[in-house]
Specification:
Chain lengths: 204, 225
């Protein structure tokens, strides 16, 4: 139990997807102009991440790993399909996002209206695929995978809402014209990243 | 690959020379005026984490150039037969296949670099540059200009990557491509490597400052986003 809690805290703060790995920077910078939209995207990311990473884990364990196909026929025990991981992971994510979009539209139109535009964007959000790839590289088990993906999602949510809050305030600041917008957003992200670095001193 | 590249020049020759002014511009624009990272704000995701040293940055840039140019070419060849509704999936499959090739080649011939790049090779798939150029250019243009556009955007991406990596490696560990650049007597006199440069935020600062410099110099880019 304690081990899982550590993993969660580590994924949210110490190894934050944005500040430590720069995953999902594109939507992070593009959708952080208002707190409200940032909030919506953050929630959608948590949701999709929590859904797709365990799904990818199951695909990896039962279809791709060396020996994983033995349940079909003993002769297949030596087949190693891990080189197909990229294609299957991204297809799962694209498919899952599509399904989620349709389900949400059908059953909770209110939520769809607030998340609607962000859902398709999430397919190409690097943090989603990145979490799946980290899961593969670090060889988590199913429970760890679920906790890790939840933590990464919350980390993204936290980062994007924080940046949106800072940028809303900065709109009234007198910044040199060439630095406005993207340049400043980068530097603020860097400063926030330095603040998050202080979490790396925590003994877990 | 040879089968796919062959038809491209033939189609083009009828109308304009291979390196007409327009094609040169397609190739050159992404380096400065229309840089994928600093102007189009695409592909920052996987860009910054691989810039601690110059060598992985170069390899990563080569990988992106390869994937961007060939996916542009393939999608451009297929552009009349892809139904609009499923085009995202088709694009992702093409990109994922090319990235798998890059990943397998790296694992076979440059295992140490492949370990260093870890998940970031796979993340070329969701690199917005590749998808963005497919949507914005390859779907509406002929194969040869699309191919050039892919190379140009890959180069523009690589330029930023290498600039950031040079700064980070030079000031962070005093080396370039693994060779010692800062002389020993400097260390003896009290020069210390800047540890911050090795940490993730440094990449963001350098890119932020680069954007500032580029926009002060190139006035038409101010207020782009």
């Amino acid at each position: 139990m304690e081990h899982l809690l550590n993993l969660l805290i580590k994924a949210i703060f110490v190894e934050n997807v944005i500040f430590a790995f720069f995953l999902g920077m594109c939507s992070f910078l593009a959708v952080s102009k208002k707190i409200k939209t940032a909030f919506g995207l953050g929630l959608a990311v948590i949701f999709v991440m929590l859904l797709t990473t365990p799904l990818n884990y199951l695909i990896l364990t039962f279809l791709l790993k060396e020996g994983a196909l033995a349940w079909i026929h003993p002769a297949l025990a030596k087949v190693d399909l891990t080189f197909l991981a990229f294609i299957l992971f991204i297809s799962t994510i694209a498919g899952a996002v599509q399904v989620v979009e349709m389900v949400v539209e059908k059953f909770t139109p209110a939520l769809y209206n607030s998340l609607g535009i962000f859902l398709p964007l999430i397919t190409v959000n690097c943090s989603i695929l990145g979490t799946s790839l980290f899961m593969q590289e670090r060889e988590y088990n199913l429970v760890e995978t679920a906790v890790f993906s939840l933590g990464s999602g919350i980390g993204f949510f936290l980062a994007i809402v924080l940046l949106a809050a800072v940028r809303e305030r900065l709109r009234y600041a007198n910044v040199p014209a060439p630095l406005q917008g993207l340049g400043l957003a980068m530097i603020i992200t860097g400063l926030m990243g330095m603040a998050f670095l202080s979490f790396s001193g925590i003994q877990l | 690959m040879a089968v796919e590249t062959a038809p491209a020049p033939v189609v083009e020759k009828k109308k304009e020379p291979l390196f007409s002014k327009k094609n040169i511009r397609t190739l050159r624009d992404p380096l400065d005026d229309n840089n994928p990272i600093t102007v189009q704000v695409l592909g920052i995701c996987s860009a910054l984490a691989v810039t601690v040293q110059v060598k992985p940055a170069l390899i990563m840039a080569l990988g992106v150039i390869f994937v961007a140019s060939f996916s542009n070419l393939i999608i451009s060849l297929l552009r009349h037969s892809i139904p609009t509704r499923v085009r995202i999936i088709v694009q992702l499959i093409v990109i994922a296949t090319l990235v798998t090739i890059v990943d397998q080649v790296l694992k076979a011939y440059m295992f140490d670099v492949s370990k260093k790049l870890s998940v970031f090779v796979g993340l070329i798939i969701t690199n917005c540059i590749v998808m963005g150029r497919l949507e914005a250019f390859a779907l509406g243009n002929k194969p040869w200009p699309s191919f050039l556009d892919g190379i140009g955007n890959g180069l523009g991406y690589g330029l930023i990557l290498v600039v950031v990596a040079v700064f980070r490696e030079l000031f962070g560990s005093g080396t370039l491509l693994g060779y010692q650049v800062v002389p020993q007597w400097a260390y003896d006199m009290g020069y210390v490597n800047n540890g911050l440069m090795m940490l993730p935020p440094a990449a963001l600062f350098i890119i932020g400052l680069y954007i500032w410099a580029q926009r002060s110099w190139n006035k038409k880019l101010v207020n782009v986003s």
